[in-house]
Amino acid sequence: MKYKHIVVVKRGSPENLRVEECDLREPAAKEVRIKVLACSVCQPDVQNRYGLSPFPPKVPYKPGSAIVGAVDAVGSGVRRAILGTRIAAWPSFVGYAEYLYLPESRLVPVPSSVDPAEAAPVVLNYVTAYQVLHRTAKVKTGDKVLIIGASGGCGTAFLDLGRLAGLKMYGVASGSKSSILTHFGAIPVDYRKDDFVEVMRRAEPDGLDFIFDGMGGDYINRTLPLLRSGGVLVEFANPLRLRGVLHLLARTLMVNLLPGRGKLKGYGAGTAIFHRKPFLEDWAILFRLLEEGKIQPVISGRFPLLEAAQANALLEGGQVVGNLVLVAPELLR
Hints:
This protein has helices spanning 43-49, 116-137, 153-165, 178-183, 196-203, 219-223, 242-257, 277-291, 308-316; strands at 2-8, 17-23, 31-41, 67-74, 86-89, 99-103, 108-109, 144-148, 168-173, 187-190, 208-213, 227-235, 262-266, 299-304, 323-327.
């Protein structure tokens, strides 16, 4: 029996995503075969394809970093994964596929009642936002925050969780996307129409408690002066190159050593590879919130699982609000 998956055959545009076939095999010891139900199309998928990562995967490779699926078969020694149950995983790669194989230790339980397409953004975008808010920043009700890149998949997760935390939120996005910010109770700031730094100085002359930047570039230098004394800017954008990581580390050290109004911290979801416990705890919290209807992932498009090229092209176009998700054909009916 065969199954299909997507392969990046060379660096560059979405046309370099190709559909290939593999033999469906039995899982190895302590391994689980997963039928993929949904996979988020995330910015790291696009960036890796162009080689914009400190450690980009070697071409050819199988993309897709955040999946929700069902246990389809188990290998010897598997103890907890039960056939047919819903799971989530963040394998970093291989998610654009009809089936995939992962160690049981990499799997996270998902309530059977939730929509797999809504659960998929929880795996990366929501856990990033949750950990930045509650583990890195440790926000409190009433804190004044600015979210840069507020209309994308990660940005809308910040809006959703910030609403739940009782924050006063400002969001930087284009004016055409302002309605999603107001939906979550944030005050939109149109970076195309106005100088958002001047807008924020007038709106919060005493300074912001936190700034969350997922865009990178020159936003650190532009926004640090907007913080109150003791405020914190959390940078969670992909540095794109190894030298970008080194530059961010040096900039963080300099900002935090020199006297000034605010401090700078970095966040990287890649720490899940080395320190998994906080992620397991936070995924459990987030899936419970989703099951209870307390969070509302924004899904602007659902595509058949093997139409990843079309979804990637749309994401690269810059007009997407919220998340794009690849889903199994039976979920489109």
